Amino acid sequence: MENPKKKILIVDDSEYHVEIIGSQLSSHGFIVDKAFDGESGLKKVKEFVPDLVLLDVMMPTMSGFEVCRLLKEDEETRFIPVVLITALTDAHDKVKGLEAGADDFLVKPLNTLEMLARIESLLRHRDLVEKQRKRDQYVAEISRLLDLEQLRREEETKRKHLYKEVIYSVTSGKLRLAERDELVELKWSEKEFATFSIRSAQDVPLVRHHAEAFARELSLDQDKTYNLALCVSEAATNIIKHAEHGTMREALDGDFLRIWMEDTGPGIGDTNLSKAALMKGYSTKPSLGYGFTIMIESLDCLYLCTDQMGTTVVLQMNLVKEESQVDVDRFLSAWQDPPQ
Questions:
Q1: What is the pLDDT of residues 113-166, one digit of tens each?
Q2: For the whole prediction, is pTM greater than 0.85?
Q3: CB 97, CB 66: distance < 8 Å
Q4: Would strands 104-107 and 191-198 be described as parallel, antiparallel, or unpaired?
Q5: How far apart are CA 220 and CA 101, in angstroms?
Q6: Distances from the Cα of 30 to the Cα of 9, 47, 111, 173, 340, angstroms
């Protein structure tokens, strides 16, 4: 029944008993350490970290009962099996030992075979308990991490929702931060037209030209046509600068013209999104400005979706002409009583 990996601490004020027990255990492959009173035994447990403690009950100053109780009250040592060695056979003393937390008892004079059998049984049980304890700790840690991840996702969702509302409000409802599933829903009612690749700076004037032609086909006025072409140019320049290549797609949804500018670059990133979306200036300036301010001022609506999968900008214009404002004073005067 050799077990060379297991460590046993013997605590007994009798050097003679300690030497005999230690010799027997060493011959069966156990690693043995010794202590000759309760206080040094407690200290040895911390230093030696045994797999099992053989603890004599009758010791001066601090009894084995007290040492056992202190070991079982300590979170670091409570799972170490403790075998009380006693010359007492009184049931009251065994009850006292159990109350102190003892795992087993051996009665002097010790029988070597019985001692080894009880030690092996306790060590097997301790291994099972330790495995279960580690499993429980692992499950508890996984559960804690899952809870933290859930909280992180909830906070992220709240933050994104608040961010959307702030950007929406600051831009008077023109810039709408969108998730990818929202863009999929946007496509459902669309009729797609042409798609063009954007792979180099030479493609920027080409897609601008295609956007102008598309706007004229839909009878947009000169100002709207120019504004749309300018926004397409800005968005295409962003693609070349930040993602190297992408696509422009023309679509129609009822009274709305949409130009989809898409790339698979690294995305803008949350920390830079507000600066990129709201910074004044053209994208050709050496700044974080993506020209979104120009787009917000020139378009009826602008959808923006950016993440690690890339960036999608949807330029939207209303094809229905805005009705001219009514002269309120003239309208009210028509309902006044005629002069007498």
A1: 999 999 999 999 988 988 898 899 899 999 999 999 998 888 877 877 777 787
A2: no
A3: no
A4: unpaired
A5: 88
A6: 10, 17, 17, 77, 124
